[in-house]
Design a protein that fits this description.
The complex is a heterodimer of chains A (about 220) and B (about 400).
Chain A lengths: L1 E10 L2 E11 L4 E5 L6 H8 L7 E6 L2 E2 L11 E4 L11 H8 L5 H13 L15 H13 L5 E5 L7 H16 L3 E5 L11 E6 L2 E5 L5 H5 L3
Helix pairs in contact in A: 2-4
Chain B lengths: L1 H44 L5 E6 L6 H9 L8 E4 L2 H10 L4 E5 L3 H7 L6 E3 L6 H33 L6 H17 L3 H4 L11 H25 L5 H9 L4 H30 L7 H25 L2 H18 L12 H5 L4 H14 L4 H29 L2
Parallel strand pairs in B: 1-2, 1-3
Antiparallel strand pairs in B: 3-4
The chains are: A alpha/beta (about 220), B mainly alpha (about 400).
Chain lengths: ~220, ~400
Amino acid sequence: MLQAEHISFSYRKKQVLRDVCFTAKEGDFVGIIGKNGCGKSTLLSILAGVRKPDSGAVSFLGTNLYTKSTVPAETIGYVPQLNPLLPELSVGDNLKLWLRDTSVANKEACASLYREMDLTGFLSVPVGKLSEGMKKRVSITSVLQNHPKLLILDEPSAALDLPCKEIIHNQLQAFTAKGGIVLFTTHEEAEFSLCTTLYILKDGVLQLADAAQDRHTLVQHF
Amino acid sequence: MSTLFFLQLKRAVKAVPKVIVSAIIPLFLAGMAVFFAQKQHTAHTGTPLSPVALVNQDSASYLDIILPMITETEAAGSFSFLEMNETEAMEALQEGTVCAVLVLPKDMFEGIISSANIPAKLYLPGGDSFPSLLIGKYAEAGSLTLGASQAGIYAAADLYTAYGIAEHLSDIYYDINTANLKYALSRESAFSAKATNALGTFSLIEYYGCTLLLCLLLFLGAGMGSFLGTPAPKTFSEQLRRNGFGPFSLELSLFLPLTIFYLILTYLLGGIAALLLPGFTFSGSTLLFLGCMALCFSAYTQLIFSFAKNAGRGFLLFSFLGLLMILVAGGFLPYAFLPDFFVTLTPFLPLGACLSALRRLVSGSLTLWDTLLPVLHMVLLLGLLALLSMLRRKEVRP
């Protein structure tokens, strides 16, 4: 279970998160929506352990993330908005860089994952030559190959074409079906229906939203 | 860690063609800048081949013999002499069409013989121009030579008097003077003892060959540094940190490929230098020094690019500081044309120490201290890098 308690965060004098609390349990598909610059990415980076909150605590599977020297990257997969890839290296090399378990068994599992993500034919292509959509797929794959229990994705479907989006949605749904937790931010209306829980971040406050609300009501929050 | 290191090494290898291409443009620009700076410098002060105005107020018959002797000496070969009257000569000096005015006063040569010593006058333009320095040194050497000549003449006169044949002296004065001046003026040692070559014991190729080697390392390193030293997007280093690699590990993963790159490059350039520069020979101490220099360059590159956090900014800062250090070390202009404190400053600059040691290597006077000084610089630079990494770790650690 992921639990965020009373998280607050400010950039200098501007407070972007105010007393944010929420929980997510195994199998949850949690979406966070909100206007550009409202603090969604900041919240995700805090939950991923990249940034420390001014106050509050985040725990996953009973472990407080900020009492450990490093965040357990193999249990929490984080895909930031900008792809953490080295453009000169091939897709295969970039995936190899982030692969934690290099056992033969896992390599076979990875090969299967690459096939599902339709990356097999691109493993030797330099990342710099890929489209943004392909890069995003590589980023997500680099995280999924470590079999995390929590997946945090910052606008995963931005710049993706429809077939790409479908591949990723299928993967994420399969991930939650196996008991994983997905936490993601989005501006895509079509993705609301994937969510088991939808939150709106407005003025630094996280509020539960009803995904079934009419479009007009939700769009007001963008 | 090993995967990260090998992948960074792979990146470095892939970047080599791009780095070579990116080094050509700044090298060309630096070469052009040096060329035009030199040209501007010499154009401003008159070229070394500028004529010297000769104002001859003496009507002595020796002059026809003496002047060719002077102008045919090796030291005077850089100058041509134009006979003018004094007014024309001073105007020409002001206009910059001559680099000096030499006035031979009336009865000067008679004065030499009779020990009246009426001095010649040498007018030089203001400033420390190269032709002025050269003529100044030349005049000093000339006066020494003339002094020696006079001593010979007086000694001969004294001996003729002492042996009671002074009555013949007036008949053979001409022969004595001619012979003395001939021997005195043909002695080039008076000029060679005065080091008028601003490059010291180096040939032009050796001197600027050292500078070129360092500039090649600098600009090829700038290309590789801007490539390796900026691995981010920022998210890349954040992900590394999440995976247990701190800023120090990241720096180390960049430092090792960078060092390998510099080692290969330094030995390669050293090999070429050994073929082109006569004084550059390969030996154990040469290999040790080149290795130390590669380490020093690697640490300098890593620190600057890590500090700059951005490829473009890093490239500019790295190149600017590098060129400045080479300039201070007399890489572009010899020390004779630079402020004195540059000499004092040079050993304290990483690239300055490397250039000085490289010159000593070429001149065959490399000491262990010269070899180890770049390593000392490397240690200091890495210390600063570690400090920077620690500060950044403090900044971003979750």
